[in-house]
Amino acid sequence: MATQAGTKTEMTHTERVRAAVNGGEVDRVPVAFWHHFRPEGSGTKMARATYHFFVESFDLDIAKIMPDIPYPFPRQSIHEPNDWRLIEPIDPLRSRFFTQRAEAVIDLRQRVGNGTPIIVTVFSPMTEAMHFAPSKEQFIQLATEHPAVVHEALATIAGNLRQHISDVIDAGADGVFFALQGCTTDYMTPEQYKEFGRPYDLMALAGAENGWLNILHIHGEQNLMFNEMLDYPTQVLNWSDRLAGPSLREARAVTNRCLMGGWNEFGPLSNGPAEKIKQEADDALKQTGGRRFILANGCSVPDDTDERWLRIARDYVNDL
Q: CATH top-level class for 27-317?
């Protein structure tokens, strides 16, 4: 425990989040929110931007590195089946994708010490693969018509990401924010995701086995394959509960995992008014009972969000 505030013991950020993940008592609900940063591809700049936002500006309970260094393969470059064969294993010692992200973790850990947990955003293998195709729809078409070469590419991507995840945790991260895209019936059937998504998600997540704060982000604004992801080996679930559903209450009925959400990222948290921000926070605590819960946005708030709304949200948590 860290300090005494009157008769109430105040936890460190790490103690608070660990307690929430494990279903223990907390001095207050853990809180986090985020948007994307563009620190021009340097690990040091990423660490500095992350520290400024999550620690100096808002004193949040989780520091989330959101790297702008992309997976080293050209976006929207695959048009023919054999193009998938151009995806190769990555040498972690020679790739900036690996080295600069690990450098960001090392730098940030030196800044925050052990009192704040650090996570690193990592996109799933299929999410990356969909970026390489001209569109998500064309990825599905290529995967359906030429499954062998697509499976081979996905396995290579998953192996690279497994190594990357292991590296950032070895560098000092407490886990990863593992973001799934495509896991909605707006893009594919559950059977297609089971074939082209799930096996490679699990292969990549094997690199996170030493992390205690792995967060599964199920991305989408509607028709999520939520129940299909409940057995993934992560400690926390995050999704747009206000937009896509299920609600926090509905999710609590089907899993005892720590839930992360409660604020609509496109609603009051990014647009106000203050009373609506507070109402969503109060409602989220009612739905979850405040146990095994981290109050957060369902997905990134817009990058141009007026920080006064984020300040109101952060300050209100102290009163909950």
A: alpha beta
